């Protein structure tokens, strides 16, 4: 009943139960303004925050670095844990020509479907032409002789227009 008399402005007596809308009755039990689990940041104590000041902001470190080990509770000895060290996996982009961002204002590129002939021309054509010019590939009437001794029949490579992949 003393609680009802003391906080009569924020407690209503509803039948046998008390209904409280006050944070005073059910608020934090600790008087510390910060949660000990998380470090205090300079943004938390800046002059524009309630209770903050420039001295408090300058007293804090610039950046908080996470520990890479643990302290033993009984002995207080620090133990380094290799799994707690952050590891950044970054690809080597030397000679990479693409830009990291494509604007939404970029013009749309339309390209037709790739055909086997397009793939051959982009991947193998230069190699085959170079070997032909050097003489390691010889073309005779109905066969092609490769440098490793294999003989390919020309009839197997002739494709009719109707049989081409679209």
Automatic annotation (TrEMBL):
Residues 37-61 have a biased composition (Basic and acidic residues). It is found in: Mitochondrion. Residues 37-62 are annotated as: Disordered. Keywords: Mitochondrion, Ribonucleoprotein, Ribosomal protein, Transit peptide. It comes from the Eukaryota. GO terms for biological process: translation. GO terms for molecular function: structural constituent of ribosome. One of its GO terms (cellular component) is mitochondrial large ribosomal subunit. Coiled coil: none annotated. Belongs to the mitochondrion-specific ribosomal protein mL41 family. This is 39S ribosomal protein L41, mitochondrial.
């Amino acid at each position: 009943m003393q609680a009802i008399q003391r906080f009569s402005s924020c407690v209503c007596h509803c039948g046998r139960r008390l209904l409280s809308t006050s944070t005073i009755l059910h608020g934090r039990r600790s008087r510390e303004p910060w949660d000990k689990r998380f470090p205090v940041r300079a943004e938390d104590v800046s002059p524009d925050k309630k209770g903050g000041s420039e001295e408090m902001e300058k007293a804090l470190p610039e950046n908080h670095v996470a520990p890479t080990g643990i302290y033993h509770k009984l002995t207080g000895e620090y133990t380094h844990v290799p799994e707690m060290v952050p590891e950044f996996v970054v690809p080597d982009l030397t000679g990479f020509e693409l830009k990291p961002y494509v604007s939404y204002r970029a013009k749309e590129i339309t390209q037709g479907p790739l055909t086997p002939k397009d793939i051959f021309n982009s991947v193998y054509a230069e190699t085959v032409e170079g070997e032909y010019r050097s003489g390691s590939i010889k073309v005779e009437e109905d066969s092609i002789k490769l440098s490793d001794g294999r003989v390919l029949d020309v009839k197997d490579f002739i494709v009719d227009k109707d049989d081409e992949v679209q």
